[in-house]
């Protein structure tokens, strides 16, 4: 039975998300979560998934959501981030099913000072639920990993209780992802804090599992956001197997992978590290930095190659000052932006390949 016999195309929620992640664990692949900041980047990711016949996770970061709404809108009290994530969600909902692939619609890291953003999205989920019987989003991430562990777990639990009646998925983080992302800087974090102990992962499981099964854990195993010179921090994806075994033994689970795990800060990881993570029950891997760069590459190369056509509205400068051919088809954003979409498309497909997520429908 294929994935599309189990879940429908388009945005999926609740039990369908769980079915997707169970299917991924069983077939030993993970799904890339592509950070998107515009309808253009959403479409590029969807097109890549469609052509490779794979499920997809689309996610909006806090800053990415604000950009989606427009930088001209004031983000006081998270106003723009709330608006932008909702606008993005409606765009994805409108087009996703026409690409024929299941899509998990997700919001990325939400730290303590950004909680009004999560509150705003949850209000939108509740309103959508009233009308359609499912939340607007498939899932959200809460990330209180910078706060004391007890506070992280108890606040996460409180939010999970709000999500549960809608079968809304919640991803949480325990332990610290190094580096810098979206204004959260952990570049000087204590190295030990970059590896989450199994006891902490189990503590999260104990707090959340009595409420609902719809949660995943981003446990730190030396992950770093962004791309840095190698050698600074050692990635240890084999630790994830220890967490799975620890929880399995504690709860007497029949499954070797009782946890749904998430891989953050994976840009620049080796194929082997990614495969070890996936074989240890990682179902989602975040991809942001690499697709940002890929999107630029297409636009950059187009502009550099066509520079003589882009300096004026009329005239190819390489043909001399008297040339009068129109340049409209060069500066039309549908042309140069499309080049960015094409290079991003390729990078999304590479992420799929790395994660074993090819022809998985
Ligand atoms: Zn992350």
TrEMBL record:
Gene3D superfamilies linked: Aldolase class I
Region of interest called Disordered, as start-end residue ranges on this chain: 312-334
CDD domains: FBP_aldolase_IIA
Cofactors that this protein relies on: Zn(2+)
Record carries keyword Lyase: yes
GO CC field: cytosol
GO molecular function: fructose-bisphosphate aldolase activity; zinc ion binding
Enzyme Commission number: 4.1.2.13
Matching NCBIfam families: cbbA, FruBisAldo_II_A, PRK09197.1
Xref: PANTHER family: FRUCTOSE-BISPHOSPHATE ALDOLASE, FRUCTOSE-BISPHOSPHATE ALDOLASE CLASS 2
Protein's name according to its UniProt entry: Fructose-bisphosphate aldolase
Designated gene of the protein: FBA1
